[in-house]
Amino acid sequence: MTNVLAIDQLGYKHNFKTILHDVDLTLEAGKIVGLLGENGAGKTTLMRLITGSAKGTGTIAVCGDTQAAHHRSHVSFTEQLRGFTANTRVDRVADFYRTVYPDFDGARFEELVTFLQIDTSLKLAALSKGMKEKVIIALTLARQVNLYLLDEPFSGIDSMSRKRIISSIIKWKPDDATMVISDHYVSEIAPILDEIVVVKDQTVYAHKESDAVREEFGMGIEAYYESLYEGSVQHD
Ligand SMILES: Nc1ncnc2c1ncn2[C@@H]1O[C@H](COP(=O)(O)OP(=O)(O)OP(=O)(O)O)[C@@H](O)[C@H]1O
Q1: Which residues does the UniProt record annotate as the domain ABC transporter (predicted)?
Q2: What CATH class does 3-230 carry?
Q3: Residue in 35, 44, 47, 183 to alter for ligand 1 test, most ligand atoms within 8 A of Cβ
Q4: Going by CA atoms, what residue is nearest to atom 6 of ligand 1?
Q5: Tens-of-pLDDT digits for all 236 residues of the chain?
Q6: Would you kindly state where each structural domain of the chain is located, as residue ranges?
Q7: Contacts from 126-131 at CB under 8 Å and sequence distance 24+?
Q8: Does ligand 1 come within 6 angstroms of the Cβ of 43?
Q9: What is the ipTM of this complex?
Q10: Beta strand pairing status for 3-14 and 17-28?
């Protein structure tokens, strides 16, 4: 099986404070991976390091390529639309993505906006928080890449839409692509996860296949995750 991501001895400091250290992580192609951890654990930072928008020590190879400047061509990340003015229409944002990313699939974007019930003629200023999250999901998944990084993609989305999106997400993932999803509603995403990665104590504290968690520990993902904080399960 090919590795889509290989991180070796990654470290990152901000203002002399260690945010992440000794991170080793390998992800195979074709997986859906839950990135779990408390507030401030370093999940977003890890995603920014993978995309190349933050620079740490150690090496990160995406599809075998260790050049940070090349990572954006392999990775689609849930960007927060900060670079666009409030007057920009959603369809104009999509035009921008089409120009910047040759892998942006316009037909797929149309399918996604229909599925997510987004009116693309609206300006960003007219979108609610949840609608904006849906636009970000559509833009991120419309790219055809090897690695998708979804950073709390459902945070402002109502629970019914969230369940609908989560249960369909596999449909939007190319078979050989890997998708990393960070989310605090562990029980909601648990059913679709092949693996979990837990960021704790400024490092990747645990990396497990979901089936292995169930078999080895006889518990679900959420119970296992919580047990890491209670100290009732030893990690390796
Ligand atoms: N550019 C930065 N400026 C300020 N603080 C930063 C920066 N980068 C990282 N940090 C710090 O790094 C730590 C990890 O933050 P990060 O946003 O990665 O955590 P997280 O796991 O994504 O948290 P959450 O679940 O709350 O989103 C925090 O203490 C944060 O303050």
Answers
A1: 5-226
A2: alpha beta
A3: 44
A4: 14
A5: 579 999 999 999 999 999 999 999 999 999 999 999 999 999 999 999 999 999 999 999 999 999 999 999 999 999 888 889 999 999 999 999 999 999 999 999 999 999 999 999 999 999 999 999 999 999 999 999 999 999 999 988 999 999 999 999 999 999 999 999 999 999 999 999 999 999 999 999 999 999 999 999 999 999 999 999 887 666 55
A6: 3-230
A7: 127/90, 128/156, 129/156, 130/156, 130/157, 130/158, 130/161
A8: yes
A9: 0.92
A10: antiparallel
